[in-house]
Each structure stands twice: as structure tokens, then as C-alpha cells.
Amino acid sequence: MPQLFPMNWNILTISFLSIMLLSIIFLHFTIFPKTNSMKIMWKPFQKTWKW
What are phi and psi of 34, to 5 degrees? Predict the structure, then answer.
């Protein structure tokens, strides 16, 4: 399989994974806006960051 772009495979995979993650998060918040899942997600996040 020839490489179409002279790019690193590490950069390609990392960019692809980040785009997938962002799209999943975006879809999750558009389908379930401000429900209990948001509260459940924010509690451990605040505990780890010690706000």
C-alpha cells in the first residue's frame, strides 16, 4: 500500500483517534443535553482537578 501523503503514521493515528473522540463527545452532548450523565461526569473531574 503506497503512502499517499509523506506523513508519519503516528500522527495520522493520533489525529484520527482525536477526531473520533471529539465527534463521539459532540454526539453524546447533542443527544443527551444536560442530563444526569453530565453531573456524573463532572463529579470525578472536579475531584481530580481539586477546584
Answer: 55, 55
Residues 6 or more apart whose CB falls under 8 angstroms from that of 37 comprise 28
SS3 call for 38: helix
Residue 14 CA to its chain's centroid (Å): 11
pLDDT in tens, 10-36: 888 889 999 999 998 888 777 665 555
The torsion defined by the Cα of 36, 41, 47 and 48, in degrees rounded to 10, comes to 180
CB within 8 A of 29, min separation 6: which ones?
38
Domain parsing of the chain, residue ranges: 9-49
Confidence (pTM) = 0.45
